[in-house]
Specification:
There is one protein chain. By secondary structure, this protein is an alpha+beta fold. 32% of the residues lie in helices and 24% in strands. It contains 10 helices and 11 strands. The strands form 2 sheets. Strands 1, 2, 3, 4, 5, 6 and 11 form a 7-stranded mixed sheet that branches. The two termini are 36 Å apart.
Length: 324
């Protein structure tokens, strides 16, 4: 496969996985974006500049996650390896449960696809499969690719995802602490099994959440309840667990965002006005909490070829079977 461009820029949204009961399945794209600019060069070198989140912390060569994902995708397409100059302009907080690693992986895959002479060589299903190879499960990757809300699963034929309808009145607020939490540590806090009653409770809430997101946002507080993971992570979540309890005690649809420790609040209409009043009394921003009101990203990952290659590429959608 030949390359069709040597200079592209990719924009990828943050994500919030689980949304309470949809553990390892549901995800939502947030309008907080990382931007990655990739130049292919003749020299046999990899140079990565990182601005913003992760600067001074992440690898700056072949081990950088975006580079690894880009290389994997180009290799799969049979494209000739080349030198890379890359600039990562990061806004998504790292280690806070907002999908920063998924965004990096998706950025690399989508950038590689945009560099190919025929981007169709890497189809939508392959984009999701590659992202899942890096992430281990597709719940964050799917909304990062497709935008909006998604439900993802892995079957005998690999990972798949469909988009979910979201009422445009629903607003997303993310409360971000200073502390970070490794996903592996959050997963290690979970028990090997849960009771049948807790599983049944959570399945019912996950089904209700699909309806609440699409048409009945007033049901969001009940629909975001779960008994599978959040309570078990209390010890590692610390202050975030306490904040979650306080917000839910006020009737808000609050969940731990992904593995945490950020807290996601979904609200619409009168609940949105009440959310602001509750947050002003419960969240002490002077103690290091940041309150973000990003909105919901509906476009997903997008790539475009820069001057010299003026034709733009559209967004790369997830594998969509039909709207649920």
């Amino acid at each position: 496969m030949q390359l069709g461009a040597d200079h592209v820029v990719v924009r990828v949204p943050a994500t919030s996985a689980n949304l309470g009961p949809g553990y390892d399945a549901l995800g939502l794209a947030l309008a907080v974006h990382d931007e990655v600019e990739v130049r292919l060069v003749a020299a046999d070198e990899v140079i990565v500049d990182v601005e913003g989140e992760g600067a001074g912390e992440v690898p700056l060569g072949e081990d950088h996650l975006v580079v690894r994902a880009l290389r994997r995708t180009l290799d799969l397409a049979g494209a000739t390896p080349t030198g890379i100059h890359m600039t990562c302009r990061n806004v998504i907080p790292h280690g806070r449960g907002m999908g920063s690693s998924s965004a990096a992986v998706v950025a690399g895959i989508v950038a590689a696809r945009a560099l190919l002479a025929d981007p169709r060589a890497i189809d939508a299903a392959t984009v999701l499969r590659l992202a899942t190879e890096f992430e281990g499960h597709p719940d964050n990757a799917a909304p990062a690719i497709a935008g909006g809300a998604t439900v993802a699963w892995t079957g005998d034929d690999g990972p798949r995802a469909v988009d979910l309808e979201v009422d445009p009145a629903i607003e997303a607020t993310v409360i971000v602490p200073e502390a970070r939490l490794e996903t592996s540590r959050a997963r290690a806090a979970l028990p090997a099994s849960v009771s049948h009653a807790d599983a049944a409770f959570t399945v019912g809430r996950a089904a209700l959440l699909v309806e609440a997101l699409a048409r009945r946002p007033e049901l969001l507080p009940e629909a975001t309840e779960d008994r599978l993971h959040q309570s078990y992570r209390g010890a590692v979540l610390g202050a975030s667990s306490e904040l979650l309890r306080a917000l839910r005690a006020e009737g808000l649809a609050a969940t731990i965002s992904g593995a945490g420790p950020s807290v996601l609040v979904l609200a619409a209409g009168r609940d949105a006005a009440r959310r602001d009043a509750v947050l002003s009394s419960v969240v002490d921003e002077a103690s290091g909490w940041r309150v973000l009101r990003p909105g919901i990203d509906t476009a997903g990952a997008r790539a475009r070829r820069l001057p010299g290659h003026p034709d733009a590429l559209s967004s790369v959608p997830a594998t969509r079977e039909k709207r649920a």
